[in-house]
Design a protein that fits this description.
homotetramer; 173 residues; alpha/beta; five-stranded parallel β-sheet; 7 strands
């Protein structure tokens, strides 16, 4: 099991797709985006669910936290049932978010990967994507790494996703 | 937990979105499409993964079956951890597919719902969607229900998704 | 050239895809959605551009109107250059919107098609789609047809998109 | 009017979105992808339309060429009607493709921009995107620039889209 953590527009999803391409075995990819897609539409913009403010701030409510905890248990169970799984997440709570994953995965072996990207470059890529609330990249660039402990880190500021993925793949084979 | 089964273009996804809108509690929606999205790109068109033939036939290989089994365990674990979950699936193996779910869910309480749609109407909706291989709707319309036992069935041929969803919601509250 | 007009979630896009499938010659499909996609991201949510209020009301500003007028000229020029084109639009201004198209198309031959759908059914389909602001379907169902003159009308309330498309195709061959 | 030309995964779309964000006036963005989306589904995979081979080669037929020529006339007419338009295209025919645009735009003022990206980097980004046929980036990286004359060129290999967009914007204000 691999868990990638990084801010919005840091390049996590591109790394995940490259990992799936370069790893010899088939890996399933789950992520915080797939959890948000699974929510009722009403929770995708509410105080109890997950909210995206105009300045890029993201807030999550109690209902979201409860469903997220159950989802983490489900991802861990998928791994226990024999699947290789790579997760990309945004640790809005920093070390507290990592702790939630630790409780879900128990004694499963996890490779913790930090995905860094300079704030200005992530913000520029956010503009180029055009489908994200402006400001998320900058507000999350440092926040999500606070107090988090990694097995390895990659930095997409000057390195392509495929190169980052190969470095990660080298750690698990 | 609710499991909906129906052929391609029978209207499952629309019913799921309406269920999430009409049910008073928040429900997570997972489905076979989300599993396919989680696969490596190479498995989305391969004999070991899942293949979509030009005539609409869908074939699945051993690697897909193994990951699917682990994914089912994960969905069941999400429910055991306290989340309400609605799943939409296409039982390409009919009764055998239902049996795979039964093994994953164990003693969890499940509402089994069959989603029917007349073959010609499903094929017409497939044309109107424009994003599915032509022929899937017709080839799956009957196949997926063979030998499957339901708690209730809905038919979208002449009934809107929202009306079907309200009928299902009435069963679980 | 065919111009379809109908409210949000009335089924225009499905009819367009079916028209492209049943008409013997290749037709290009342009629509108000493709114009909105072509706008700068900042104009997709601004008073000068196009705004989607929480209650489903849509407002358009002067910058949008100016670009829309140029786009209509472009669509008309595409037809004059020999392409068959089907357009789906939402006449927020009713007869005034039709008049804008009349000025752009000049003496080109146009089949004007009204796409109706009962307000409650369109609203139900809006819920099933899940990707549109709730309330648009209901607020536009009657509004967009006010004062508009059609060559023919179709009603998707009880009729599939493919059937509607065949009726339209019969008018132009 | 700005016309950008570059191979698949060279970063054209990101540059276009950034151009729309940094230019003070509103610009419409059209591109070869929007033309392909406007085609009948059957033409998106046929010898008369546009075909994507498993090795990334793209072939276009007579029907596609005819509709493309009419579309170019429409884009030019949109500009003549007063809209600012940025186009991103893939000149599969190199200089011949540029000549087709020249005939459509006539005496309109155009800024021709070449978007370069090293073949291996474009191929890596293609893997990271995951939604394009593998091989397109490599096969088009040089091909599309053969014999084409530019007003300026940008290279996304080591430069972010936003930086490229600012360089282009400096040319037109």
């Amino acid at each position: 099991m691999i868990i990638l953590n990084g801010g919005s527009s840091s390049g996590k999803t591109g790394i995940v797709r490259c990992l799936q391409a370069v790893l010899p075995d088939p890996w399933l990819a789950f992520g915080i985006d797939s959890l948000v897609d699974a929510l009722p539409a009403s929770m995708q913009t509410s105080p109890e669910g997950i909210g995206f403010a105009a300045d890029g701030a993201v807030t999550v409510g109690a209902d979201f936290r409860a469903l997220e905890a159950a989802w983490m248990e489900g991802v861990a169970a998928t791994v226990r049932a024999g699947a290789r799984v790579v997760v990309d997440d945004v640790f809005l709570g920093g070390a507290a978010s990592q702790q939630r994953w630790r409780e879900a995965v128990g004694d499963l072996s996890v490779l913790w990967v930090g995905v860094r990207c300079e704030s200005t470059v992530a913000a520029a890529r956010e503009t180029a994507r055009g489908d994200r609330t402006r400001g998320m990249a900058a507000s999350q660039a440092h926040l999500v790494h606070e107090g988090v402990i990694y097995d390895m880190e990659v930095d997409t500021t000057h390195t392509e996703s495929l190169t980052c993925a190969r470095a990660i793949a080298a750690h698990i084979s």
